[in-house]
Write a structure and sequence with these properties.
The protein has 371 residues and is of the alpha/beta class. 47% of the residues lie in helices and 11% in strands. A seven-stranded parallel beta sheet has the order 1-4-5-6-7-8-9. Strands 2-3 form a two-stranded antiparallel ribbon.
Length: 371
């Protein structure tokens, strides 16, 4: 990782270390994406995954919000997708317009032939996902130390959902069938995915990622008991084994973030899951989350992304509530949305959201949130 510029904005890392800061660091999930006009210009005629596989395009898309919101946000996140791991495992994944991700041949059962192939296949994520690492290295050089760069992966449970449902779902019939009818086979596949996640994240750090996030986007589909059985053990496997793998690469550990959307019931467990930062969706009350966390982790989140469709008064009100809930945000909070930026958002509304966080946190003084 030699040759990268010195980081000029370390606000994120000071916050992760638990220091009191002048204001909370700010970034948002899906900040690089289709709501930006420049995204469509850079994407051109390429499909979504072609953009992911092009280091130059992925790097350009990653930098677009950093340039547009210069001085307002404090981190970049590499433009990629959580479903590159199933692709590396040999599954076909398409991104269909107005529909989202689609697996033409999802897993049907442990005896469908494909399951056995997936379990037996040795996956070389260094080779299969080299384009991601190239994009990360290229982006680090282009950033010139302006802000740190997030890498990420999907959580094993969420990836399993996609691999058996064949895409997004309302009822999650297939994955519920798997975990309740084939629990042992499900756990074997979850473990394999977790091991691939560790290697993938370690190689992202080797390429230049400075902080990583694990997205458990479908965590809400599990009951509290099922979450402890089919998600949490594999999230913990990643947090326990990533630092070990980085040590084998002679690399220092990096901060780790977990975002289990909808798993508000598991916040206490997530605070003890080995991650430095726990992301919150907009269903979690910030003050209650602070009370539960008790200073064990930094919290990240958690404005409703839908407020960006509203007017400035609505955005200000949401930011005020969020700042108050996180006790002013000068310790233990990374300001973010409670999920990714959604389509058709006005980029100027997002800019105003950032500006209001600056205005309302730089001016206020609150007591420490740690206990």
């Amino acid at each position: 990782m030699a040759g990268f510029d010195v980081l000029k904005n370390d606000l994120l890392f000071r916050t992760v270390r638990g220091e009191r800061v002048e204001r909370p660091p700010i970034w948002v999930m899906r900040q690089a994406g289709r709501y930006l006009p420049e995204y469509h210009q850079a994407k051109g005629e390429n499909d979504f995954f072609a953009c992911c596989r092009s280091p130059e395009i992925a790097s350009t898309l990653t930098l677009q919000p950093i340039d547009r919101y210069d001085g307002l946000i404090d981190a970049a996140i590499i433009f990629s997708d959580i479903l590159v791991i199933p692709q590396a495992m040999g599954m076909t994944v398409e991104m269909l317009d107005k529909k989202g991700p689609h697996f033409p041949n999802p897993l049907k059962s442990p005896t469908d032939g494909q399951y056995e192939l997936l379990m037996d296949r040795k996956v070389d994520v260094a080779q299969e996902l080299d384009y991601v690492y190239q994009a990360i290295t290229m982006t680090r050089h282009k950033l010139k130390g302006r802000v740190p760069l997030y890498g990420f992966c999907g959580a094993p449970w969420t990836l399993l959902c996609y691999m058996v449902e064949g895409g997004g779902s309302k009822l999650f019939v297939q994955v519920k069938t798997w975990i309740y009818k084939y629990p042992m086979q499900s756990k074997k596949l979850l473990q394999k995915i977790a091991e691939l996640c560790v290697e993938y994240l370690a190689l992202q750090v080797k390429a230049g990622a400075q902080i990583i996030q694990v997205f458990d986007s479908w965590a809400a589909e599990l009951s509290p008991t099922s979450f402890k059985e089919f998600s949490l053990p594999y999230l913990r496997y990643i947090s326990q084994n990533l630092p070990l793998r980085l040590g084998e690469f002679r690399l220092k550990s990096v901060p780790m973030v977990v975002f289990a959307k909808g798993a508000w019931y598991a916040l206490d467990d997530l605070c003890d899951s080995g991650y430095h930062v726990v992301g919150l969706d907009w269903l979690q009350d910030p003050a209650e989350a602070v009370r539960i966390a008790r200073g064990r982790v930094v919290l990240q989140g958690n404005a409703d992304p839908g407020v960006l469709y509203g007017n400035k008064e609505a955005i200000t009100a949401v930011v005020q509530d969020m700042v108050q809930g996180f006790a002013g945000g000068k310790q233990g909070w990374i300001a973010n949305l409670g999920h990714g930026v959604t389509p058709f958002v006005d980029p100027d509304n997002l800019k105003f959201f950032f500006e209001e966080i600056h205005r309302l946190t730089e001016a206020e003084s609150y007591p420490s949130t740690t206990m």
